[in-house]
Amino acid sequence: MAKKSVLNAEHYQWGDACDGWHLLKQENLSIIQERMPPQTAEVRHYHVFSHQFFFVLKGELLIEKDGEEITLSAHQGIDIPAGTTHQVRNESSMPVEFLLTSQPPAEGDRVVVKKVKSISTVTL
């Protein structure tokens, strides 16, 4: 049995110089260690099927969940049920590292959502 770490896991880059390492990549479960440099963010989105859990290892992560902003510090986590709009941001001056567990894996299950200031700005 091989031990997994960022040293031997499949690596990918996403967003604005952010890193991810697939620690577990199975059909029904995904665990990824991610690193976000200071002042970076992902797009606001939701997943149709995937239930996620974010757990901070180092630093501070701001998560917007259904419009509410929640700050997580090291050794704190939060779950994001399928269908819940969310966005993670690192607004601090230090990198943040966290684990992202998704069941089932979220790859190909992202619906991007634009933040709307008022209903009058929406065109159908």
From TrEMBL:
SUPFAM superfamilies referenced in this protein's UniProt entry, alphabetically: RmlC-like cupins
Signal peptide start-end: none
Keyword Hydrolase appears in the UniProt entry: no
Gene3D superfamilies: Jelly Rolls (2.60.120.10)
TM segment ranges: none
Top-rank taxon: Bacteria
Cupin type-2 domain ranges (all copies): 34-100
Record-level Gene Ontology MF annotations: metal ion binding
Alphabetic keyword roster: Metal-binding
Name of the protein described by the UniProt record: Cupin
Lineage: Bacteria, Bacillati, Bacillota, Bacilli, Bacillales
